[in-house]
Amino acid sequence: MDRSWNGTDPQELGNLFTANATSTDQSLGVTFTGRQQISDWKARTDSLIDNVHVTVYAAHRDGNHITIEAVYAGHIKGAPKPFAVPMATLLNLNGRQITSDQDYYAINRVLAQSGLPADWTPPTP
């Protein structure tokens, strides 16, 4: 998954999911459903954050459940500094495809490290 997330093809990431999978960014409180919405979210993230990437440090599997420990990093366009924050991801699988993805990281740390105010919001597309 980290290869697809760190890559430049949003569809590659979307294809890891089942047709009706969900991906939830718990820090922002948003959920995307289905491959296309998940791919679109990846494309939007790539357009807002330079060098956005995830570095996986550990992954644990128990049946159809995977827990990932990682660092989420990048440089929000227009921000004075880059960020790198701890992240946890919970995945549920059906065979080799993801049925749900929940990402947890501290948005307040992303903004503080980036040199942005706590009430900053990304520009609308």
Largest sheet: 6 strands, mixed
Helix-residue proportion: 25-40%
Oligomer: single chain
Mean pLDDT: 92
Estimate the global geometry from the Cα principal axes.
Answer: globular
List low-pLDDT spans.
none
Structural class: alpha+beta
- Report the order of strands and helices: HHEEHEEEEH
Question: How far apart lie the N and C ends?
Answer: 26 Å
Query: Count of DSSP helices?
Result: 4
Tell me the fraction of residues in β-strands, as a range. Answer: over 45%
Can you list the strand order of the major beta sheet? 2-1-6-5-4-3
Number of strands: 6
Rg of Cα set: 14 Å
Protein architecture, described:
It is a single chain. This protein is of the alpha+beta class. Helices cover 26% and strands 47% of the residues. The protein has four helices and six strands, in the order ααββαββββα. The chain has a six-stranded mixed beta sheet with strand order 2-1-6-5-4-3. It is globular, with a radius of gyration of 14 Å. The model has no long low-confidence stretch (mean pLDDT 92).
Summarize the structure.
The protein is α+β, with helices and mostly antiparallel strands and 125 residues long.
Question: Which keywords apply here?
Answer:
globular; 6-stranded mixed β-sheet; 125 residues; 47% strand; 6 strands; alpha+beta
Topology record:
Blueprint: H1 2-6, H2 10-14, E1 17-25, E2 30-33, H3 34-48, E3 49-62, E4 65-76, E5 83-94, E6 97-104, H4 107-114
Parallel strand pairs: 1-6
Antiparallel strand pairs: 1-2, 3-4, 4-5, 5-6
